[in-house]
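Ticket #4471: structure output looks truncated?

Reporter: J.K.
Steps to reproduce: submitted the chain below (132 residues) through the standard prediction queue, then opened the result file.
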Amino acid sequence: MGLDASVDYPLGLRRPDLVTTPSGIPLAELALDAPGLEAADLRATPATLRLQAEVAAASGRRQLAENLLRAAELAPLPDDLILEIYTALRPRRSTAEQLEGWAARLDELDAPRSAAFVRDALATYRERDLLA
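Returned output as attached by the reporter:
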């Protein structure tokens, strides 16, 4: 039984050859009970997130596309770094200098969309008196 041509399936169903795990396992070969499967293999890759962003943008979902592009930038970063950034972005947790430092670090890590997001948060926190 094939896919219904009238349905707009997610990219992974229409083009599974384009989707792999971070270690390169093709979607068609992925099995949750496979020996040696690591938790990291269940994560979306930056390439997959960028493809999802293209689909979202093509369907007019610009904000979702932007979120997915930020996720693609952050996907290769270590979990502890993501948690530090998340914590720093909570209201009254960081000074303006600290948030600008995070934005600069994200720029250095080739995550310009995420850096811009932190700078937008900084501007909003200044405006609403939410800085530490």
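Triage note (M.O.): checked the attachment and the full token line is present. DSSP finds six helices and no strands in the chain.
Status: closed, working as intended.
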